[in-house]
Amino acid sequence: MNDTPGGDLGRRRFLYAAGAAAAAAIGTAGCGASGRAAPETGPSSASPSPGGPSPAAGPSPAVAARPSPTPERLLPGDTDWRIRRYGPDDAVEGYCDRASVLPGEPVGLCVSTTADRFRVTAYRMGWYGGALARRVWRSAWISGRRQRPGDLVATTRTVHADWRRSLTVPTDGWPEGVYLLRLDADRGHQRYVPLVVRSASGAGKTVLVHATGTWQAYNRWGGHSLYFGGDGRYESRSLAVSFDRPYDRTGMEKFLVHERAVVALAERLGLPLAYTTSGDIDAGGGVLKDAAAVFFLGHDEYWTPGMRARATDARDAGVNLAFLGANTCYRRIRLERGGRLVVCYKTDVARDPMYGRRPALATADYRSGPAADPESSLTGVFYDGYPVDAPYVVTRPGHWIFAGTGVRRGEQFPHLVGVEYDRVVPAVPTPRPLEIISHSPVTCAGRPSFADSAYYTMPGGAGVFASGTMRWAEALMARTRDLPRAHGIDVRTRRFVTKATANLLRAFAEGPAGRLQPPPRDNVRATYG
After folding, report:
1. Is the separation of the CB atoms in 274 and 291 below 8 Å?
2. Which top-rank group of organisms is this from (predicted)?
3. Are 389 and 486 in contact (CB under 8 A)?
4. In Å, what is the CA distance from 45 to each residue of 42, 170, 461, 465?
5. Which of 146, 308, 341, 455 has its CA 20 to 30 A from that of 509?
6. Dmax of the chain from CA atoms?
7. Residues 6+ away with beta carbon under 8 Å from 296
8. How far is CA 78 from the centre of its chain?
9. Per the omega criterion (within 30 degrees of 0), is the bond before 512 cis?
10. Which residues have a Cβ under 8 Å from the Cβ of 173 and sit 6 or more positions away?
């Protein structure tokens, strides 16, 4: 991605509304990484005001459902998980004091609302017979308060909310997975707060990685993100962004659009799964050790050097890797303040304190100096640009990933390539043997190019797949209730991508694909000369 002023920076503008702002300052911060704990506001037993949302069937307030002997994916779901009414930006919003917890660990939740009361419902996202979520917990009604606006750190233009903690959410009995905590104000307004209940071990499992660093990079709450400042300009963007603030109006666009459908499909297939975040991989803990496969789900742009090193080590040890989006591992970041601060100076990298001291930690793009290390050495493909909208063109219909799809050589799937794309570039570090299985002509800002899906293997047995398009995961829910327009992607394309992704999930779950699946037939020279 090009962030230079006047370049393709404008590609993100349509995604964002203005950052939300809370009003009326109160008390001392208690939900941030500063560690200044504040007293909790205990659940209120008061009833909601007339006209507020009515309770749904399920566990009693503040009591989690007991574990069931039935496999999680076969439990009945709850279609009421979707937000129905956002309302004003400051109607109700919140954030957790941690992006992930182990099962049974409590998490602090900070909430600001203009309503008198609110409550919290935890939905575990998955398959659940097509309902896509299951309700596992609900709080009692809690007295609401408006918390203060965020503080702006001038040196890095970082917005911190640092609100008082509103309640502690227990996770006793919650299965590993990704959750949306839905905030319901008694006036009917709603928001999501994400939480991953992570796996301690991924041994023998397919690990799903939630791109929390990327979620936060695009978050414009308080008027600032790693792309825009309060005046809407790139030059006034944040150089570091904090997890100690809510997500902006879209709530969880990065998860809902680019990740959720992959989770649902993986759970539908009944595979042994583990769940983690980009920050957890950076922090260590060994969740990738002895995994069968690791899936980076849809838009995973921002990586720490530690995350990249651990993913590379896993691959070299025989763990399969799948990159289902584009623009993966493009930005080098650091996580500071216990993982609560995402640092990325981008084109101002010379101002990064690490620039002269530890160049490998300076937060430029991976392909840029200092310490250039293009993403292609891991992903096999190289980010090439934005914006595009083009057909996906199959060139190796006999590849095992396409088994059962019925595709023919040259068959096209309109609109599947976009809005960002990757390609194979022989001049940059690229693992071999590598097979290009789709080769799609594109025109990006008047420049002709190609988008490629590619597959390579390693001596240790790992297979590595990259889709080469940002819309791969989106296509899994094209023309459904949650993505009815889908950039023009049709049902035929959804079925093709679903089958190919299911093939990939099943094959990678079996173990080292380089030993168990047909080897790649290197065609880089034949394709690019």
Report:
1. yes
2. Bacteria
3. no
4. 9, 18, 57, 52
5. 308
6. 72
7. 209, 211, 321, 322, 323, 324, 325, 328
8. 23
9. no
10. 64, 65, 66, 67, 104, 136
